[in-house]
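Can't paste images in this forum, so I'm doing it all in text. The chain is below; anyone willing to post the predicted structure tokens underneath?
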Amino acid sequence: MGRILQQYVAMKTDPAVASLIDSDITELKLAAKKLLHDATMLGGKGFGTSFFKWVASFAAIYLLILDSTNWRTNMLTALLVPYIFFSFPESLFHFFRGEVGKWIAFIAVVLRLFFPRHFPDWLEIPGSMILIVIVAPNIFALKLRNNWIGLAIDLFIGCYLLQEHIRASGGFRNSFTQKHGISNTLGILLLIVYPICAFIIH
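Text version of the structure:
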């Protein structure tokens, strides 16, 4: 065992091995820089905006799920419905605005009207979100969603939810230290990141 250790130490201190490792690390750095350059050339600034749009939408859905479980908060989570409406990624928005969303909304309305005992309370907000996506006029669905007005509404909702959460927690520091506070605080901060980045880029 001592012999293997001596060989290992000799290999680690060998200048030829060290120069090979240094050259490999340099090549990796150059490859990473080239990858970053090519990604920004292909995706441009729109890649960052669309990435944050996906993250913000899933953060809002995550907050809705948290509120419907036993991690209830004092937030007005109904405001997450217009936030999701204005920040939902295009592909998912058009998917739910099509036939799939119509079927989901139809089943939700039938359950709510004819079987109210079998319609759980936690499905109220997701059901209303699907209904808004489907019945929204084109001026909201096509024009305002991809406009600075939709971004301003998202930013206002995110800031309002953050200040309400901080106030309910008893301060910014407490919003991170309370039970389940860090997950809610990080989710709300992600809601604010997307509109700010979109305003900066566009």
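The chain is about 80% helix and 0% strand. Residues 15-68 form the longest helix (54 residues).
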